Each structure stands twice: as structure tokens, then as C-alpha cells.
Amino acid sequence: MTDASNTGPAAPLGTVQTNYMAQLQRRRLYGGLTLLLFVVLMISGFNVADGRNAGGFWDGLQNIGDYPADVLSEAWAKRADLPALIWKYVPALLETINIAAVSTLIGAAIGLVFSLLSTRGLARWPRLIPLFRRMMDIMRAVPEIVIALVLIFVLGGGPVPAMIAIAIHTAGALGKMFSEVAENADLKPVEGLASTGATWFQKMWYGVLPQVAPNFLSYGLLRFEINIRASAILGFVGAGGLGYELRNSMSWGPGRFDEATAIFILLFSTIVFFDQLSSRYRNRLADGDAI
Length: 291
Known about the structure:
The chain is an all-alpha fold. The chain folds into two domains: about 1-45; about 75-290, MetI-like fold (Orthogonal Bundle), CATH 1.10.3720.10. It has helices spanning about 15-50, 55-60, 65-75, 80-90, 90-115, 130-140, 145-155, 160-180, 190-195, 200-235, 240-250, 255-285. About 30% of the residues are buried.
């Protein structure tokens, strides 16, 4: 009895190996050309940027350590005053932490709603999923500093523009990550609640959130850590907090470099502390332990 299927003669092993090596060489060639193009673009872009600078990069490279040396030398000469200066800027630090905390909470709440409305299989209005996703794309595409500059022009300087700017960016970023987590949720509890006549909110609250809450909290802690840095950076544009005080002390120049050093120490210590704290709790959440 003959086989009805005619697969044709098998290719010789040498031919298969030759074809494989030829394909591998083509991939290496394409990869090399892509890398070469990238290097050429980087070099040309650097030359264009260097030509538009007020001073040449290579000419100023030798002076890169002058400013840090001036700051450290003045801080060392006034090292006895550093503890008092650090304590002086603790209220500004608390303002920075408050900006980060409030913006993280508001952004996480908005991101949670957007994530559930933009997740296939869970969305309240499936046809509006692309709309909610594009809204999240816009919120996280615009940098916080751009939003803060616009809000400062409208609302004036202070912590409120920084809080709103960071909350908008946080909502877009966390909404994207929350949505990816929610897509992997088991839909059987949702289907069971739907069979009992539960509303959409009840299905999300009792069927989805218990599954994804550890991951949501982990991402929220990570975002809080990032927002502390962002709130300090926004202080440079007049949004309050430690960044505002640091800008003032640095722009004043020699004579207040000791204050800049104290702020640097305070900011660095705070970031390291919250980085370690959030990493610890995120690891515990990843292992399935309760906080």
C-alpha cells in the first residue's frame, strides 16, 4: 500500500547546511550594516550638536570637574554647618515627598480605571478601548516638566502644578502596566459573577482586583519611587520642594555651595531610603507575602 501523501525527496544534509550558513551570513551582514548606520548617525548627530553649543565639547571637557570641586571645597570648609543646613531643608523634603505621594495616589486611581476600561474581555465599553488606550499614550508621552511649565504659567508656581503634572504622567504609565497585568487575569470569576447578575463594578471589584492587587501595589510602589525623583526635578522650574531650593542655592553661586551640598545629601539619602524600602516590599509582594 503506497502512501497517498507525496512530500517529495528530502533535501541533502549538505544543502540544508549550506542554506543555513548563507542565511546566517546575510543576517550578520544586515546586522553589521545596521550597526554601522547607527554609529554614523551618532557621530554626525554629535558633531551637529557640538557645533551648535556655545562652547566645544572637547574644549570644555577638561573643565568638567571645576564646578564639583568648588562645591565640595566650600562644603568641606563649612562642614560644621551641614547638620544645621540639612535640618533647615527638611520641610522642603517633606513637601517633595508629599507631592510624590499625592500624585502617585491620584495617578494610580486614574490609571486603574483606564486600565480596566482598556483591557479586552473586561472593558465596560469594548468599542471605546482604542480611545482609552490613546488617551493613556498621550498622558505618558508628554514629559512631566512640559506639563508643569504649562500649569505654572496658568496656576503660578508651587506644589500644585507639580502634583498635577506628575499625576497625569503617572496615570498614563500605570494605566498601561495595569492593563497588561489585567489581561492575564482569570476570567472564570468574572463569568461566575456575571451569571449572578453582578454589575460591571462588582465584577471588577470582586473578580479581577483580588487577582491583580499584588502586582498593582508593586507597580505603584515603583512609581512612587520614580515620582520622588520627578518632584525634585520639577522644583527647578518653580514647582516647589527640594528642587526649588537646590536651584536657588546653585544659581546663587559661591557662598551658598554649602547649602547645595546639604540639599544633595538630603535628596540622595531620601531617594536611597525609599528605593530600598519599595524594593523590599515589592520583593515581598512578588513572593506572595503580605505587607
